[in-house]
Amino acid sequence: MSYRVQIAPSMLAADFLNLNKDVELVNQYADAFHLDIMDGTFVPNISYGFPVVEAIARKATKPLDAHLMIVHPEKYIDRFAKVGVDMLSFHLNAVDNPGQILAQIWAAGMKPGLAINPDIPVESLFPYLDQCHYVVLMSVFAGFGGQKFIEATYDRLKTLKAEIDRQGIECHIQVDGGVSAANSQRLIESGADILVAGSAVFKAADPKAAIESMQ
Ligand code: DX5
Ligand code: ZN
After folding, report:
1. Rounded distance, CA 203 to CA 99, Å?
2. Does the active-site annotation cover 78?
3. CA 66 to centroid of ligand 1, rounded, Å
4. Which of 86, 140, 185, 210 is a Cys-bridge partner for 177, taking CB atoms 3.0 to 4.6 Å apart?
5. What pLDDT is attached to residue 121?
6. Residues 160-196 pLDDT 10s
7. Cα–Cα distance, 150 to 154 (Å, whole number)
């Protein structure tokens, strides 16, 4: 199976006063919209909610990938499905019953993902890999855009990729946080196939070139 790396710009770094322009950029040059949903409880920051997601959904021609950094993600599964979200991830340590929630997301017609922060052992994902469309390996601590990439991510990525191959399953690996053209190549070589990038895309002088340089 060959699978080209996908670039999912994080809309957290978009220009909210000119959202249309940034949505068009993703539609034209990237592969998916990464939507960071923060509740001020699971993470210390609050981002945006349904009004913004719905506005993006109306204009988006690329899939929507929502990253829930919230407690009780299970409460909002149907709502995200209704908005038209395609991929929905939540954090392993935000819930008591990850397997059940992954099943609920499949049942709602979306592709589920399980996310972990840099301080959670990758091995804790292993029992759930065969129920995931993707896993989200955080390369910064969830909560804020614009943080510095954590180098230990490469080794974690290799361990995770080796286990996915060992299980012989099709589970994609998304890396999220501090991703740029400076580390994209090594991330892809280490097993990542979906790269999330916020600042590196939207704060670049040439966002289109920034996306292309990561591919
Ligand atoms: C962090 C978010 C990331 C973030 C990425 O909590 O999950 O998606 O917006 O932004 P950059 O690429 O700026 O690190
Ligand atoms: Zn994210």
Report:
1. 37
2. no
3. 12
4. 140
5. 98
6. 999 999 999 999 999 999 999 999 999 999 999 999 9
7. 9
